[in-house]
Structure formats: C-alpha cells, structure tokens
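Appendix B. One record, verbatim.
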Amino acid sequence: MSTTRQPIGRAKMTLVFGAVGNQTGILSTVVARVRRRRKGLRLSFVGAVQFSASTRAHITGVILPIVDRILEQLRLATPSFEISAVNVGAASCHELGTEVSGFSADAPVLLAMLSAALEIPLRDDFVATGHIASTHGDIVAVKGIPAKLEAAIADRSVRRFLYGGFERDRSLEVLSPREKDAAMAAIMRACNAIETKAIYGVDELIAEALSEDAILTSSLENGFFHRLPKAELTGDPIARATSFLRNGHDRRFWDLVQRDLSTGECGRAVHFLEIYAASFLGRDQYPMGFGARLLRLVCAVPPTIRQRKLTYPLLDLGRCVELVRLASPSDFADVPLLFDAVRGKVPGDDRLAVQQRELSTSTLTDCELFDAVTAEIGETSLTHKFDIPIDSARASFVLASSTVGSHDEFLGIVESFFIHLQSHMDPDAVTTSDLQQARKEASRLLKRAFWNHGGIRGALARAQAGVDGGVRSVLDTMTERYKAETRAGHIETFLHIAIEAMDHAEQVRFARGAMERLGPMLPAELRNEPPERFANHIDQIARAYAKSTAGIEQLLKTM
C-alpha cells in the first residue's frame, strides 16, 4: 500500500429514526479513510454524524480486530482509520437526530474499512445491515428491517439488500418474536422490488460486496496475488473470508482475459495485462509460462474478432522487453511466444486477413463476390495451394530402402516424414517445443490413412514385407490423406471466415451472384426464385459449386 496516499472506502448504510411502529429509514454512507498509524490511536471518529460511545467501543473491540486479522493473513500492514458518515440532509430537514447507535452499521463499517485498507472499491448496487456479534465474524439480525427495506427500495441505485439472517438462534437475542415476524413479512413483501439475501458471516458479506475484478486488481497492486500459501475454506467466517481473498487469483486473471478477448472488448484485458506485468516487474520475476498461456487464448479467439476487434499490442512492447530481461534459462522458450501473443501473431492469420480484405470490398459486383468465394475453394486453387506443394514434399523425401527392420525404425520414418511435410508447407510450423506434438500427430495421421487397411499394424506389416511398394506406398497413402484433410480444413476455415464476415445483405448478394452465374443451367422455377430464399445456405452452394456445377440444381431444389 502506498504511504503517500490515504485510500478511502465507502459503503452504503441505512439509518433508522423514530419509535417502533413509526420508524423512518434513510440511506447514508459510512466513510473509512486510512491514516498513518499513530502510537496508541487506531480509530478516530469525525464529522457531523456522531457515533455513540457504545458503537465506537464495539467497532474498536470487535470490528477492528477482524479487519486486522484479515489484513495480517494477506501479509498487509494494519493501518489506522478515520471513520465518518455522510451527513443526512433529509434528517436535518425533519429535525431528526443523526447519531449512529446500536449495531446496524457493523456490516457497512467493516466493508468501508476493508475497502480502504485493500484499496478496493465495493459494488455500488447494495446496502448491508447486520450485527457482527463476535470477533470470529458471525453476523446476526438487527432491528428496524422494515424501515431499512423501504429506504433501500426508494433509492434506485440499490438493487440488493443484505441483512443478518434470522435462522440462527442468536437472532432472538436481538429481536422479539413480534419484531422477527415483522421483519420477515417485510422481506417477503419486498421480494418483487429488490433482491434480498440473508448473511451469517463476514465471509458471505465480503463475497457479496466485492467483484472479481476488484479483488484481482487489489491482489496485483498490493502484492497478495503472489506466493501466499493456499488458505483453507474451513474454520470461522474470518478464515473463510481470508481464503476467499487469498485463493483463486490466477484463475480470476486468466478467466477475465479470456472473456474479454473472446468478445473483442479488449480494453479491460489490456489494463489487467499491464498491472499483471507490473506486479511481476515489482518482484524482479518473469511470469512463468506467460507467453504460452496468452498465445493460447489469442489463438482461441474467433479469427474475425481477433483481426477486426482486438487492438495490438495487447501489452506494451517496452513492458515485454522489461519482463524478458528477468527471464531465466527455463523461460527462454516462452519469450518468443509472449511477443507473438501480444502482437496477435497467429499462424495463418496473414493469409486469412488478405482473404477477408478481398471479400469485404464493396466494389465487387454480385457475380464477382460469388466468384471470389468459390475460386478460393475451387479445384484449381486447391491444387495450386496444397496438392503441388505436398506432392513436392513427398518427392523430396528420399528413402534408403522400401522395407524396415523394426517397429521403432518404421515409426521414426513416419514421424520424420510428417515433420518434413509440415515444414515444407510452413517453415515456421514446427519448432523444438512442437516436435513431441508433431510425433503424436504423425501416428494419428498414419492411423487415419490406414483405417480400413489394418491401421498402424497393417501399415507396419506392409513396410516390413515390402509388398505393394513397402514403406514408399505407406508414405504415399499418408500423403493422399494429408492432402485430403488439408484441403477440407482450408475449405471449412475459409467458408467460416468468409460467411462470418458477410452481413445478411452481402449473403443475399452472394446468392444473387450464384443465380446469375448458374442461370442458364437452372430450371425456370429456380431462376425466378428470390435470392433471399437461398441466402442462409450460401456455404452449401459454394461447396457444391466448387465440387461440381452439376450438383447445384439438386441442392437448390431441396432448400
């Protein structure tokens, strides 16, 4: 925590005035300000709103020790606090006293103190009331619930009302049976106007009051993101509250980044990547596996969102350089992945981006739009892009013999050939860290290629016996399978991206272009149909046309 700042925490609270049966509830705010710790003085109460002597004693003897215990478990300093409440204008107008007494303010006072100490804002859509009845953090019911509910409902910013529950035995120490019945009846009546929830401990109160984003921010900026032993979820409410604040930060961080990147709303993700990096720089430490995890998330973002909505770099490149200076030898493999991730450099994206730009231009006529899509997945394009390079790779892989002597020798040839294929298609496709995965993929490709010829055992038998060309024919069969799968993968990816990039009007234009190109070959009843009828099926039209124009008529008749 900064020694120069004086963080402030604010929590909504309700004040109740008047006698039982004629009570008025008013919404106010309790404010806690962190002060430099002075010897012998931990709490001071200031402002126009007075806190009664008994309330001050309770805050000092019960609530402050709870706050201290939570901060100590997070390995943070225990500061002094200045407590005040916002002066209630409505109370002055009605000549009502503005003294905070009793235990109703326990919950908001605790929250305001924690908010200030952790430099973490509270959710602003709730008000809480409840008596913190022990230094273990138990919360029980308080009086005046009907009036407090009315005040909460009257404030449009309040959507949730948290109250000390009635189900525990200690509620009867505070409420008479009649008061308890009146409170429960008020809660039932309010169910359609506001969300209500009973709480029984400070752990439940804190979980309701703090957002995941706020906890994550505080953990990164105050240092308890790192290296705290995992706290157990058992024990008293304070232990459970501490566990909630100490555990799960890594999950919170990566879940947040994944959600924001996948929707294209990357502003918040960029902010958290920055403070995440800053927290590790403050520790002179490179975040282990940072690049690999971030690149995995970037690769999982749909291509159109990744290319059109995300703003790069996701993390300032200067920050990345600072982190790299802290990398140890075990981190070196992760460094290039980090730079690829923050720049959005994903294999194949350059090619797909070019295709999107070609398809998205508004200067294309309907027929040209149709031609641009179908040409990309047509036989000529597929042969040029895939068949010729793959056949060339096969021809350049020289075997010393058409037979093998052992299973290990055979698998070694298959793995080397598969890596050769990948490297021929994309020199950057296989790196040292990918070799193990490439070997697994080689075996899977072999199994798929020989699925109806005995699988891997059948391929090995052919290679050992030398029949039907031996090893050479095994590699030829793998090559044909690899070509077929590469073609199919390209068609699927291209059509998904091309169609996703089109709005409905462009899909109609595509269908109109298809009908114009195919007009002479279509029967009269199809030529006269509106293109809107076929707009939702343009992927099927493109596939059928790319394979053979002969299948188009039959396809259109089924739509």
